[in-house]
């Protein structure tokens, strides 16, 4: 069964509010998007790795490491980071990765009114549209939920997470590797592609999970058909 959650307070696992995201390094676009795969996570052991707050200086390296091992992931992007980096966004999508909306500049949406929430989402949608990309999912900064947030995002699925690597706090490659590699079947794993320590951990994370027989998929592949208005932390209840 798919795990969904009710509106709640801010979750741990996001960088502190107001902490700036580094500028993104150039990422050359690929000529054509990779063909979609048929992965049925109802019958296969799957884990969804996710990366927030980019595109950043390490996004290209993370995508390259994932692609080299046949792995997929979901990148929840900030509109402020997307703006002016449309080629980087297109390259992530062309590599077969999924792209989600993570607000424009990372505020706590639970402290905002409906109009401000819709502005945060709409400005990021518009920035992604300039890159020719449409976000398939939404992830609120800090995992902060409220009735107003949920009502304002009722037109799209909301992806939180079940495994928090705390990479933003530890900035430790080994700690991030241990946390992500311990993810159970059906987990959505939270990381950030703006940290070099996380980028260094990705090849080991992929190898460790694949050695356990896991397929590394996008969030939408994991959930199969995520529904608008629902909030997900993973595919299976623990």
UniProtKB/TrEMBL annotation:
Asked if the record carries the keyword Hydrolase, the reply is yes
Q: What segments bear the compositional bias annotation Low complexity?
A: 20-31
> What are its GO biological-process terms?
carbohydrate metabolic process
Claim: Metal-binding is one of the keywords in the record: yes
- UniProt cross-references to InterPro entries, sorted A to Z: Glyco_hydro/deAcase_b/a-brl, NODB_dom, Polysacc_deacetylase_ArnD
Entry's Pfam families? Polysacc_deac_1
Instruction: Report the protein name in the record.
Output: Hydrolase
Record GO cellular component, one term: membrane
Q: Which domain of life is it from?
A: Bacteria
Q: Name one GO molecular function term.
A: hydrolase activity, acting on carbon-nitrogen (but not peptide) bonds
The record's region (Disordered) falls at 1-31
Give the species: Galactobacter valiniphilus
What keywords does the record list, in alphabetical order?
Hydrolase, Metal-binding
Domain NodB homology as annotated: residue spans: 45-217
């Amino acid at each position: 069964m798919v795990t969904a959650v009710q509106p709640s307070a801010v979750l741990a696992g996001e960088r502190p509010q107001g902490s700036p995201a580094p500028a993104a390094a150039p990422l050359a676009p690929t000529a054509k998007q990779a063909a979609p795969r048929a992965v049925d996570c109802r019958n296969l052991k799957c884990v969804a790795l996710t990366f927030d707050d980019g595109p950043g200086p390490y996004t290209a390296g993370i995508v390259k490491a994932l692609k080299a091992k046949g792995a997929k992931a979901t990148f929840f992007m900030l509109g402020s980071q997307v703006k002016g980096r449309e080629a980087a966004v297109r390259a992530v999508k062309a590599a077969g990765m999924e792209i989600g909306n993570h607000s424009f500049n990372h505020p706590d949406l639970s402290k905002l009114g409906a109009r401000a929430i819709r502005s945060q989402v709409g400005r990021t949608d518009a920035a992604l549209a300039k890159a020719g990309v449409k976000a398939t999912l939404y992830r609120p900064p800090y995992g902060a939920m409220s009735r107003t947030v949920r009502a304002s995002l009722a037109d799209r699925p909301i992806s939180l997470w079940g495994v928090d690597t705390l990479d933003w706090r530890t900035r430790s490659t080994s700690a991030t590797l241990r946390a992500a590699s311990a993810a159970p079947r059906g987990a959505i794993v939270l990381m950030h592609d703006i940290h070099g320590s996380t980028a260094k951990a990705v090849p080991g994370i992929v190898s460790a999970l694949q050695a356990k027989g896991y397929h590394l998929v996008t969030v939408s592949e994991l959930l199969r058909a995520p529904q608008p208005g629902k909030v997900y932390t993973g595919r299976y209840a623990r």
